[in-house]
Structure formats: C-alpha cells, structure tokens
Amino acid sequence: MTARLTVLAGPTAVGKGTVAAWIREHHPEVWLSVSATTRPARPGEIDGVHYRFLSGDEFARQVREGEMLEWAVVHGRASYGTPRGPVIEALAQGKLPLLEIDLQGARQVRASMPQARSVFLAPPSWDELVNRLVGRGTETAEERAVRLDTAKVEMAAQQEFDHVIVNDDIRRAAEELVSLMRSH
Asked: Does residue 44 come out as left (phi exceeding 0), alpha (psi in the -120 to 50 range) or beta?
C-alpha cells in the first residue's frame, strides 16, 4: 500500500488542534506535520512541537526557496505554512502523514498533490463553534470577530473536501479520521 497524505482542515476553533493532539497521543503510527507560523506562541505552546515559530524574514525566505508545501496569511495577520521536506520524507517512509491546516493551505495542497485525501472537520453547529472560540479565551473581541468572519467563509467550502467529520466528540472524531486514513 502506498502512503497517502491526509489533509485536515476546517474553520477556526472547530478543534483541529485538539483532534490532532488526541491522535498524536493515542496513535503513534500517524505522523503529524508541524506547521510553521510567524504568530507568537500562545501559553503552553512549544516550538517544534505545536508549531515551528519563525520570524517573518525566515518564513519569507523558506517560501521564496520553495521549502513550503503550502502557506498563507491567515486572518490577515500571521503567516502559516507546512515545511515540504518532512512531508515528503514521511510519505517515502510509508508513514500515515496528517496535515492540520487552514482552508487556503488545503487548496494549495490539492493543487500540488491531487492524490492527497482532504477531510473537513465541522462543528456540530454554528453556535457551538462560536462558544468554542469565545471559551478558549485566547483572542481579543476584535480578533474573535475577524476569526468568525473567516469561519463563515470556511464553513461554506466544506463541499470541496473528500470527507466531512463532525467534531461532536474529540475521541470519536479522531478515531473516525484515523480509521479513514487506514482504509485507503
């Protein structure tokens, strides 16, 4: 069986990071890409584990030199991207690679790697998504408003994906995703 890249995307605050962390803890056979970003670390985030925190100049250099599989400016503020090298290496080693990225990035990966499987992580409802974003308390009211506007656009794009998983329970959603990854 040839390894196949799986891309997990969805709106802000839907729980992509939480589902990915659950998979990291319970499924060591899944290789999770560590995204790079220019945003500052949030409390508890560790460089190289949660993200690779880069300066704007270093991020721009990596983009110029083709070292990013995908990248985007998200919420009009910080740049996020997936370093290409580790993904290619994981595929070559036959691992089950998973990218947890935003909608723009998922579209870029689909364009450059059409064989990748795309999975949209959806909230149980719009109200639940709003509650999750407010509940995490990591953004100002202005940042929340920007993220919710972005989330409306992201929610409308779910039909572009191969599969949709509703994140109504972290463990269930994570197990559904891993089962999907193993099945193809």
From this structure: left
Write the CB contacts of 141 (distance below 8 Å, at least 6 apart in sequence).
none
pLDDT in tens, 91-104: 999 899 999 988 88
Instruction: Identify whether 150 is part of a domain.
Output: yes
Tens digit of each residue's pLDDT (9 = 90 or more) over 125-176: 998 988 888 887 777 888 888 888 988 999 999 999 999 999 999 999 999 9
Bridge pairing between strands 96-100 and 6-9: parallel
Is residue 172 assigned to a domain?
yes
Residue 1 lies in a domain: no
Beta bridge partners of 96: 30
Instruction: Indicate the burial class of 127 (C-beta count within 10 angstroms; 0-12, 13-18, 19 or more).
Output: exposed
CA atoms of 97 and 3, how far apart (whole Å)? 8
Q: Which domain holds residue 99?
A: 6-183
Note the pLDDT tens digit of each residue in 67-119: 999 998 876 789 999 999 999 999 999 899 999 988 888 999 999 899 999 99
Q: How far is the C-alpha of 101 from the C-alpha of 9, rounded, in Å?
A: 5
Alpha-helix runs per DSSP H in the chain: 16-26, 56-64, 84-92, 103-112, 126-136, 141-155, 170-183
Per-residue tokens: 125: 């409802």
